[in-house]
Specification:
Layout (H helix, E strand, L loop, with lengths): L2 H9 L2 H32 L1 E4 L2 E4 L1 H6 L7 H11 L5 H19 L1 H7 L5 H27 L16 H14 L2 H18 L1
Antiparallel strand pairs: 1-2
Length: about 200
């Protein structure tokens, strides 16, 4: 079988095509969540309230935006300086971005030839960075601002941000077995029946 026939065979095999489509979509989704999280969490750290409006104050421009013309890279640099992420994790972000770009710009090729070999490694990096940044946010901003946590001991290792739970469910439903995927819908339906 020549290369062209092999590509057509992969393209026309439903399990392979679905897996490639779903995996690429999940990777792009994960990247966009990470990208947004990096920018928004740093911006929120500088949010001030003016009358009835919340927005980043002047200090945000000075401390963050002046370091780089790209809001994303300025925010990444701020997170690195604040020791939220390490220089190695900054490099991981670049590797993630490179895979994301190849998935987006070479999408037809991905459908027939599959994802880049380092896809799974980079997806783990996405998950790890989201978890680290969001956990930092919860511990340093959400918990201190919530009076329900006053005088309560917080076990850092037990903090699980909501976005991590959502991503885990997404992976189970999209890429897990039929049984794994169905358990969430069954639980939702059962909970809906109890409430009605």
């Amino acid at each position: 079988m020549n290369d062209v026939d092999a590509q057509w065979k992969r393209f026309l095999t439903p399990e392979i095509l679905r897996n490639n489509l779903i995996s690429a979509s999940i990777f792009i989704t994960g990247f966009e969540i990470l990208n947004n999280l990096i920018i928004e969490r740093v911006k929120e750290a500088y949010t001030e309230f003016f009358e009835d409006k919340a927005q980043p104050g002047i200090k945000y421009k000075k401390d963050v935006l002046e370091s780089n013309r790209s809001i994303l890279y300025a925010s990444l640099e701020w997170l690195r300086e604040a020791q939220v992420i390490s220089p190695d994790e900054l490099k991981n972000f670049e590797n993630i971005k490179n895979i994301r770009n190849s998935v987006v710009h070479e999408f037809p090729n991905i459908l027939t030839n599959g994802l880049p070999s380092e896809f799974l490694e980079r997806f783990k990096d996405i998950f790890s960075l989201i978890k680290k940044i969001e956990k930092w946010w919860v511990i340093n901003f959400e918990i201190p601002c919530n009076p329900e946590f006053d005088d309560k001991e917080i076990v850092v290792d037990e903090v699980v941000p909501g976005i991590i739970i959502s991503l885990s469910i997404l992976l189970d439903v999209a890429l897990g077995s039929e049984q794994e995927a169905k358990q969430y819908l069954d639980a939702l339906n059962k909970n809906s029946d109890i409430q009605t």
